[in-house]
Amino acid sequence: MRPSPVYVALILVQVFFATLPIAVKIALRDLSSPALALLRVTGAAVLFLAIHFATGGQRVRSRADYLRLSLYSVFGVILNQLLYITALTMTTATAAQTLVTAGPALTLLVAILLRHESATPAKWLGIALAGCGALLLVGVGLHQGSVLGNLLALGNVTAYSVYLVLSRGILGRYNALTVITWVFVFGVVGIFPWGIAPAMREVGGMGAATWAALAWIVAVPTVAAYYLNVWALARAEASLVAMFVYIQPVMTASLAIPFLGERPSPRMIPATLLIFAGVWVSIRAGRAAKARDGRVSAAGQEG
């Protein structure tokens, strides 16, 4: 069977996001967290706007939709960026990566509370399997960081989970590029008051490594990853999109070997197997739910 484009996109998203902690740690040598957040979001907004208008620029049709997009930017960009980057100044990448594994459970919980999705035993089984694998891989990293840093990282995961659930509705009316472009434009507006002063002070002192890290952060784990994630979100349940976050610890651990000189853990193989088992169970649960919905729909049409 040929792999689904949605699953391929979601895997690429996690590969791109997995490079983010390493690049951010490099950039934070010369930049403060508000400055880096503003530069990242502004650079991404400019690229998204350029691509958006170069490809025809779908118009947002109402003020109400602009308000919705600004709300989504609060959770998906403003809180997400500020909390994540600030957390990495206070805690380790390992600790932050441990807390990322709470994302699928939080996304599913938000979706259930807002009545966007229904819970099934298979979904919970997939989350449990993948969660065990991710926690086995990253181990007890939580004790390595500060309590405040870990709380900020958890807040980042919660904000992004809310964004995943809320933004799915508008994707039925607009394409992914339009949604992500305006979410980032509004994100610049929200982060600007926090980041403009430190950015003006610090940009002049950036070294070549920081510029390279910033360029990578904007182009790959921001523009490419966010776009592919929104594209996939328009075609899959929010909980399934969030489930692929469990691939991140595997990718980050692999990248940490050449870039950070870390030795591979003997727990990587069983952890990887558990992670991919969890993703597989969730994919099967999603396909089964779609098949049931199709049968119900067909039965209703025949009547």
Task: Describe this structure as you would to a colleague.
The chain is mainly α and 303 residues long. 79% of the residues lie in helices and 0% in strands. It has helices at 5-18, 20-27, 33-54, 63-90, 93-100, 103-113, 121-138, 147-167, 176-202, 208-233, 238-243, 247-260, 268-302. Helix 3 runs antiparallel to helix 4, helix 4 packs antiparallel against helix 8 and helix 6 (103-113) packs across helix 8 (147-167). The protein starts with a helix and ends with a helix. The model is unreliable at 295-303 (pLDDT under 50).
Q: Summarize the helix and strand pattern as letters.
A: HHHHHHHHHHHHH
Basic shape:
globular
User: What structural class results from the helix and strand content?
Assistant: mainly alpha
- Count of helical stretches: 13
- Count of DSSP E strands? 0
Helical residue percent band: over 70%
The termini sit apart by 34 Å
Q: What is the percentage of strand-forming residues?
A: under 5%
Mean pLDDT: 81
Radius of gyration based on Cα positions: 19 Å
The major β-sheet equals: none
Report the uncertain regions. 295-303
Quick tags:
mainly alpha; 79% helix; disordered C terminus
Question: Topology of this protein?
Answer:
Blueprint: H1 5-18, H2 20-27, H3 33-54, H4 63-90, H5 93-100, H6 103-113, H7 121-138, H8 147-167, H9 176-202, H10 208-233, H11 238-243, H12 247-260, H13 268-302
